[in-house]
């Protein structure tokens, strides 16, 4: 089930709201993940993302938000399945590759990548790889929100998470 809603314009100064909204979001620490899928020929595709959240435990489900201009957007719509690879603090080079379109050809060059269920690429060194089948989507404004029903989870490296805060990577330390 896919739906589309028109984002209604705001009655306040859009540029001011957008600027302060972005500043507010930079203050929200987020785990960084790589969302992966494959095309009809089995070629892998992916993007770095921090707009990832659990939705429900029953059924187990996840939500990802993807900009319509992202190269992976149409592939997610046609495949209707994706893998959320939760990154560790060791994955700096992977974040760089999946955040820079000029590095597209190098994204899956590492031997840390494998082919999983339904041909979905997953990162063997991830904290977790969460395999999802699309259970619905909603296009709103510049993004499409995909709801994925979890059908498999692979747990891996327990190293600290890759966390993004205020435009940079930060280390998480246990509270004393």
Automatic annotation (TrEMBL):
Keywords: Oxidoreductase. It comes from the Bacteria. The keyword Transferase does not apply. Residues 25-171 form the Flavin reductase like domain. GO terms for molecular function: FMN binding; riboflavin reductase (NADPH) activity. This is Flavin reductase. The lineage of its organism: Bacteria, Pseudomonadati, Pseudomonadota, Betaproteobacteria, Burkholderiales.
């Amino acid at each position: 089930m896919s739906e589309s809603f028109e984002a209604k314009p705001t009655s306040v100064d859009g540029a001011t709201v957008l600027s302060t909204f972005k500043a507010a979001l930079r203050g929200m620490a987020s785990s960084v993940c790589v969302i992966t899928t494959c095309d009809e020929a089995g070629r892998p595709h992916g993007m770095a993302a921090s707009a990832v959240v659990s939705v429900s435990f029953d059924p187990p489900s996840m939500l990802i938000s993807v900009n319509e201009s992202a190269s992976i957007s149409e592939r997610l719509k046609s495949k209707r399945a994706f893998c959320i690879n939760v990154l560790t603090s060791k994955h700096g080079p992977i974040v760089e590759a999946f955040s820079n379109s000029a590095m597209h050809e190098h994204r899956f060059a590492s031997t840390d990548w494998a082919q999983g269920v339904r041909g979905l690429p997953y990162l063997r060194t991830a904290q977790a790889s969460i395999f999802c089948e699309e259970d619905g989507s909603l296009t709103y404004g510049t993004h499409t929100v995909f709801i994925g029903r979890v059908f498999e989870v692979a747990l891996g490296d327990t190293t600290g998470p890759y966390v993004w805060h205020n435009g940079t990577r930060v280390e998480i330390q246990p509270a004393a």
